[in-house]
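S2.1 Query sequence (Nuclear transport factor 2 family protein)
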Amino acid sequence: MSERNTLQMLADRQAIADLIHRYCRAVDRLDIPLGHSIWHEDGVADYGADVYQGPGRGVIDHICAQHRHTLQHSHQVSNLIIELDGDRAASEAYVTANLRMRHGEQLRQITVWGRYVDQWSRREGRWGLDRRISIRDFDEVRDVKAMQAHAVGRRDEFDPSYDVLR
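Output C-alpha cells follow.
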C-alpha cells in the first residue's frame, strides 16, 4: 500500500470515528443540528421496534426529546472497529449510556450497554451515516445517591465546551 493510500485510509477512519463521537456529543448536549449532521439525508436508523425505526435524522429528534425528561445523561463509545471499502465503510462501536432521573424523591440511574452497527458512505467528499442498527445488549435501572451536585455541565450551547471548541 502506498503512503498516500495509507494516509487516506487513516484520514477516513478518523473522519468516521469523529462522527461517532459527535453523535454522542449531540445527544448529550441536546444539539440537534450536530446530530443531524452525521447522517446522510436518506439515512435510516433502527433502534428496535420498541424505541425507534425510521429516518436517521429523526432518531436524533426522538432521542433529544426523550433526554429532556432526564436530569443528566452521558454516552461513551469504545471498541471501535472500522472496515473501509473505497467510498463505503462499516463500523461497530460499543456504547455505554448512563441516564439519571428522579422517581419521586429517589434518584435513579439507567445504564444501557450496547453497540452501534453502522454503514457509512462518502458522498461529495463527506462521510455520513447511511444506516445504523443500535443493539441493546443489556441494561439496568438502579437507585443511586449522588456524591454532590454538579452545576458546571450543561445540556445546551452554554456548556463550557462550546466556548473551547468553537
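The radius of gyration is 17 Å. Residues 13 and 22 are 14 Å apart (CA to CA).
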